[in-house]
Input
Amino acid sequence: MTQKARHQRYVGIYNDLYGGMTDTGKIIRDAWVFGIIPETETCEGWLPQGIESLWEKVQAEWEKYGFRVSRLPPELQERFHRIQNEAIARARAAGWDPDTYLDDE
Output
């Protein structure tokens, strides 16, 4: 990581591309699901090291459930689907089209 990248602050999930339909946005949404951070925390102003630490905590939680939504307890499944559905609705309202990104692969 370059010196500049180490000090570049995150714009926050709602200011990120299409309301956070990015890898960093997914980390934040998953952290909300697991209660690692409150759903009011957008991570705006966070340094990359903080996002990386959050990712490590999220990965540790997913590992407990084999990285599968279907293995989450019912309350976490409900929270996961609610958070994802809200994110998709925000992203679509901002012009996000998931098919466009699938075609790029």
Summary: Helices lie at 3-7, 23-34, 48-64, 74-93, 98-103. The mean pLDDT is 92. Residues 28 and 102 are 22 Å apart (CA to CA).
